[in-house]
């Protein structure tokens, strides 16, 4: 009974906080809502006409949606980089960052699922995939594995912060005994979601560009660079807009993680490039297409040649401790690293897998306006969800939201 | 059982395992073999049911998809659907109610309702298969006033279909392509074609990279030769493994088929196919009413809807009746040969035994049942 009451009051309180805020906050939320509505509209057109309104064809059958999905799985997995030291190694100064990181993971996962649904030809029969009601092709299909791990990860990342915040809300200590096992589990799980997502592509003998043992590890490395980079940016924003205190030391440590991951990622990139270009085979054609274009078709060149220099630049700058300690430069590096990896692990990974086609046909892919609209809408959805989660979490952590407090007031 | 395949099996580990588990009922103690090939009882169905029982709940529960029935979906409906499908499972209900509100006959609503709630064809009993086929025929009649015939004929015993393509004979006329489009009711708007004819330059070998699979000139063009590709009905099909909902599978007679009503349109199978064998309905397929081939099979050329996968089925509606696929019949040069691989007297067996045959991308272990040869 009491539990229910607390939850009810928590919901009411958080509704209260998320609807109140500064003018900037309202502008931000209004803006996100607008983008979401545009995305919804674009999606309704897509539902109506079919996927023909996207740039995808029989030759390039996955595009922007799946690219973003792949990238966001990485972002979601990156929350683990903060969870591990905090909960398990008792590194206290990460604690606030972790709540933010897990909120980010939840938002990223919701976006992942939204992108998958947006990519489906028949979203209304998606229940065919629900075990028990439909037919779940487990364990043969990697997609079913992905469904399991993503939903499991979503569950873990919702329940841990919820437990902690729920305890704090009632002015109680969160019990380590309860949340540490969950946190440990989520560490393994995060690696799992990323590997499984990589296996989704890696397991296709039909696509030599993906059928490559380095794909999984490289996914992990790039994810652990891009995810924490995003967390740093978000923390920086939160720091300047709220009273939430995030010590420099925390950001410094996350920056360290980003740096190491980015370095490993770069090494793997070199290894990949070496394999493709030192002794090029028939299977290197996709890489050729990506980096140099094939037979005059070069739609991806501007993308990849934006990504590579940004990636290298950010990694090199981050490597120097002095530069890394300067917040301005750090934020800049994180930003360009994030963009670079978004291109590389999204567009640069999915699209060349289909080009050239199984018989060497080169059909290029460019997303249409509708596709871009839906994509932006889903990103706005993610930002919206995250803002709500973060605002509530910050409110509770700052002690503005308290169960007892409210009762004495009223 | 094993010697039956040895003349084309590469004997790859995983492939072998699959064979023994999914084998034909002859050796099964269920004994439907004794009752002769006439009896339409399908062992595979029972077998699958037993084997995958764990992953399947009540198969007959539901199957929501209104597009089959041409239900108009306007913007608002789309929004409704969006919210509904986000609420998982509710999608079926929302599309159903819109049908019920339709002032049209009650029977139509009843059929639609039952179609909504049907399961995966692969797991249906023969009885259920017949029911869904009857419903679809009746539904077509109610909607258009015209009759179609749709079959749910299962694979026959001791049949394994295979195909051979004579590269020396093909002149690139593409009669097979148009025959296929007409036979299989493919979308005319997007000009979907299952078959691709690759025009290659003499002296360059099988150089697909430089081949043209979309030519519009007089054939045979000087200094060129031609090679056709389509779904090869792999014996170890990668497309089948990846499907998250088992909407595509290999039948007992070797045909790789799709249940269009069960497919969720994720296109994973398309990414997994090394032979460009699959086609997706990016928009609602359109076939002029007078051009519709009304001799249909549930797994073959029945009308598709938008957002589902389709592909060559070796004309299951013809081949299971003992006829040749449309492409074989249409080819003016006799370059295409189709038949039962398990029949030692068939032409295809003769070709495999007497010609120097090869298959594409054999290194991938997909075991296509589609061979090429030259005179
Ligand atoms: S050719 Fe492609 S679609 Fe046909 S069975 Fe083989 S993998 Fe599947
Ligand atoms: S598109 Fe359809 S048949 Fe292909 S993998 Fe997805 S659900 Fe299965």
Automatic annotation (TrEMBL), chain A:
Residue spans crossing the bilayer: 27-46, 66-85, 97-118, 147-166, 178-199, 219-238, 250-270, 300-320, 329-355, 375-396
Protein localization: Cell membrane
Entry keyword set: Cell membrane, Membrane, Transmembrane, Transmembrane helix
Membrane topology: Multi-pass membrane protein
Cellular component annotations (GO), alphabetically ordered: plasma membrane
Gene3D superfamilies: Formate dehydrogenase/DMSO reductase domain (1.20.1630.10)
InterPro entries: DsrP-like (IPR054823), NrfD-like (IPR005614)
Protein family according to the UniProt entry: Belongs to the NrfD family.
Name of the protein described by the UniProt record: Polysulfide reductase
From TrEMBL, chain B:
Polar residues composition bias: residue spans: 21-33
Keyword presence, Iron-sulfur: yes
Annotated keywords: 4Fe-4S, Iron, Iron-sulfur, Metal-binding
Gene Ontology terms for molecular function: 4 iron, 4 sulfur cluster binding; metal ion binding
Descriptive protein name: 4Fe-4S dicluster domain-containing protein
Organism expressing this protein natively: Flagellimonas alvinocaridis
Region (Disordered): 1-40
Pfam families cross-referenced by the UniProt entry: Fer4_11 (PF13247)
Coiled-coil zones: none
Domain of life where this protein originates: Bacteria
Domain 4Fe-4S ferredoxin-type: 254-283
Position of the signal peptide: none
């Amino acid at each position: 009974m009491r539990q229910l009451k607390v939850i009810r009051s928590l919901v009411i309180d958080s509704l209260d906080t998320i609807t109140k805020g500064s003018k900037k906050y309202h502008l931000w939320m209004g803006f996100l809502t607008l983008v979401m509505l545009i995305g919804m509209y674009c999606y309704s057109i897509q539902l109506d006409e079919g996927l023909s309104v996207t740039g995808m064809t029989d030759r390039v059958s996955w595009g922007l949606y799946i690219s973003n999905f792949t990238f966001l799985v990485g972002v979601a997995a990156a929350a683990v980089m903060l969870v591990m030291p905090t909960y398990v190694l008792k590194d206290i100064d990460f604690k606030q960052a972790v709540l933010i990181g897990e909120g980010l993971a939840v938002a990223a996962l919701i976006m992942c699922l939204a992108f998958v649904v947006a990519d489906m030809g028949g979203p209304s029969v998606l229940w065919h995939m629900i075990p028990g009601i439909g037919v779940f092709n487990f364990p043969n299909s990697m997609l079913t594995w992905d469904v399991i791990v993503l939903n499991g990860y979503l569950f873990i990342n919702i329940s841990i912060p919820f437990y902690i915040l729920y305890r704090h809300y009632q002015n109680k200590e969160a019990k380590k005994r309860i949340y540490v096992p969950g946190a440990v589990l989520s560490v393994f799980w995060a690696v799992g979601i990323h590997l499984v997502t990589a296996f989704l592509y890696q397991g296709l003998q039909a696509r030599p560009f993906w059928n490559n043992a380095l794909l999984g590890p490289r996914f992990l490395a790039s994810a652990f660079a891009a995810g924490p980079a995003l967390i740093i940016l978000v923390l920086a924003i939160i720091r300047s807009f709220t009273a939430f205190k995030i010590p420099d030391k925390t950001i410094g440590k996350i920056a360290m993680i980003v740096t190491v991951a980015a370095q490993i990622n770069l090494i793997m990139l070199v290894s990949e490039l070496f394999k493709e270009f030192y002794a090029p085979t028939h299977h290197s054609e996709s890489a050729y297409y990506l980096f140099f274009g094939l037979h005059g078709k070069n739609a991806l060149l501007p993308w990849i040649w934006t990504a590579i220099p940004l990636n290298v630049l950010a990694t090199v700058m981050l490597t120097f401790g002095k530069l890394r300690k300067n917040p301005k430069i750090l934020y800049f590096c994180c930003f360009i690293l994030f963009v670079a990896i978004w291109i590389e692990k999204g567009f640069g990974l999915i699209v060349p897998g289909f080009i050239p086609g199984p018989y060497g046909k080169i059909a290029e892919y460019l997303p249409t306006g509708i596709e871009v609209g839906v994509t932006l809408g889903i990103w706005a959805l993610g930002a919206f969800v995250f803002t709500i989660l973060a605002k509530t979490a910050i409110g509770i952590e700052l002690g503005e939201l308290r169960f007892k407090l409210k009762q004495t007031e009223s | 059982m094993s010697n039956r395949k040895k003349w084309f099996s590469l004997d790859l580990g995983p492939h072998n395992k699959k064979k023994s588990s999914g084998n034909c009922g002859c050796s099964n103690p269920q004994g439907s073999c004794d009752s002769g090939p006439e009896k339409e009882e399908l062992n595979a169905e029972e077998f699958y049911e037993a084997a995958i029982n764990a992953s399947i709940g009540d198969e007959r529960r539901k199957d929501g998809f209104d597009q089959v029935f041409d239900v108009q979906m306007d913007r608002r409906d789309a929004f409704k659907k969006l919210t509904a499908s986000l609420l998982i499972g509710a999608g079926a209900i929302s599309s159903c109610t819109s049908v019920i509100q339709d002032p049209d006959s009650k029977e139509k609503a009843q059929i639609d309702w039952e179609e909504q709630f049907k399961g995966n064809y692969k797991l249906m009993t023969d009885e259920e298969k017949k029911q869904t086929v009857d419903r679809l025929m009746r539904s077509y009649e109610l909607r258009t006033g015209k009759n179609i015939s749709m079959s749910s004929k299962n694979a026959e015993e001791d049949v394994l279909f295979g195909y051979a393509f004579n590269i020396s004979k093909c002149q690139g006329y593409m009669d097979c392509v148009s025959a296929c489009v007409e036979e299989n009711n493919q979308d005319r708007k997007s000009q979907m074609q299952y078959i691709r004819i690759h025009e290659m330059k003499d002296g360059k070998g099988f150089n697909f990279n430089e081949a043209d699979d979309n030519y519009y000139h007089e054939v045979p063009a000087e200094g060129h030769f031609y090679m056709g590709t389509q779904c090869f009905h792999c014996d170890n099909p990668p497309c089948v493994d990846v499907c998250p909902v088992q909407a595509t599978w290999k039948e007992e007679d070797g045909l790789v088929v799709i249940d269009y009503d069960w497919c969720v349109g994720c296109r994973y199978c398309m990414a997994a196919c090394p032979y460009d064998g699959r086609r997706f309905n990016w928009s609602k397929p359109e076939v002029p009413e007078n051009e519709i081939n009304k001799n249909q099979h549930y797994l073959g050329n029945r009308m598709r809807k938008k957002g589902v996968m389709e592909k060559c089925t070796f004309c299951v509606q013809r081949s299971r009746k003992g006829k040749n696929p449309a492409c074989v019949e249409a080819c003016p040069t006799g370059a295409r040969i189709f038949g039962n691989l398990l029949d030692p007297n068939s032409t295809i067996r003769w070709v495999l035994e007497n010609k120097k045959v090869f298959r594409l991308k054999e290194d991938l272990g997909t075991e296509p049942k589609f061979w090429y040869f030259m005179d």
